[in-house]
Design a protein that fits this description.
The chain is an alpha/beta fold. It has ten helices and twelve strands. The protein has one domain: Rossmann fold, CATH 3.40.50.300. A six-stranded mixed β-sheet has the order 6-9-10-3-11-12, with helices on both faces. Strands 2-1-4-5 form a four-stranded antiparallel β-sheet, with helices on one face. The longest helix has 17 residues. The protein is globular.
Length: 243
């Protein structure tokens, strides 16, 4: 279980302090949580604070009761937090099997590595020995990244706008992967997204705007409000992205 207690994050801009996150209080324990809201609302900043890429200006972060506020991204990964960037990193010289093996933390065999690739809709024999370099598309890289996260089996997996930079066909396949992941994951998934199809499969939707939680509740309750215009300040920013 992840707990965010009075999380604030600010930066200095043009000689003035700018508050990006303002007193965020959340407890995350559902299997699939989506965070949405207008651009510039603080969504990616919140994801990076959770992952340990950024340190909050104030407040505490607890994972299963342990205070991890000051821990590095590496130490948080060891505690069970995975983070998937908008643009997955390429590793020239490393094969897909190398990365999945590293992610699992043990010396797994080819059949087990292939099973993870199959789970994300990739033909294992076509990918297992490929280098993770420029020859792979954005959609392929993102599915390989998800296979790595599945191999890690972490308590919390955070995805920052996984739909960014991929074509419609890849996005459709990505949705199918998340639907399968939702059914099989042992921990929690948190996805930062504007896309209705991702929000539609979330157990819980959190709407972040102007650095604060504007709406929070079951997906079946929050999504109709966003699409129906019950929250105009948020909907106007989302309308061309979730449909």
């Amino acid at each position: 279980m992840l707990e965010l207690q009075h999380i604030c994050y600010g930066v200095e801009q043009d000689g003035e302090n700018k508050n990006i996150l303002r007193d965020i209080n959340l407890t995350i324990q559902e299997r699939f949580v989506a965070i949405t809201g207008p651009n510039g609302g603080g969504k990616s900043t919140l994801a990076k604070v959770i992952a340990g890429i950024l340190t909050p200006t104030s407040g505490r972060i607890l994972l299963d009761g342990e205070d991890i506020t000051e821990l590095s991204i590496t130490d948080r990964a060891r505690r069970g937090i995975s983070f998937a960037f908008q643009q997955p990193v390429r590793f020239k010289g490393l094969t897909v099997k190398d990365l999945i093996t590293l992610a699992s933390g043990k010396n797994i065999g080819v059949p087990e590595a292939c099973d993870y690739l199959s789970e994300v809709g990739l033909c294992a024999k076509d990918y297992i020995d490929r280098e993770v370099d420029g020859s792979l598309s954005g959609g392929e890289l993102k599915r390989i990244e998800i296979a790595m996260i599945m191999a890690r089996g972490t308590k919390l997996s955070v995805f920052d706008e996984p739909e960014a930079g991929i074509d419609l066909w890849s996005f459709t396949n990505l949705i199918q992967v998340f639907e399968q992941l939702h059914n099989k994951i042992n921990g929690s998934i948190m996805i930062i997204s504007h896309q209705e199809r991702i929000l539609n499969i979330a157990d819980r939707i959190i709407v972040l705007a102007d650095g604060q939680v504007q709406h929070d509740g079951p997906g079946k309750d929050i999504l109709p409000k966003l699409l129906g215009g019950a929250a105009p300040s948020v909907c106007s920013a989302l309308s061309d992205k979730v449909r």
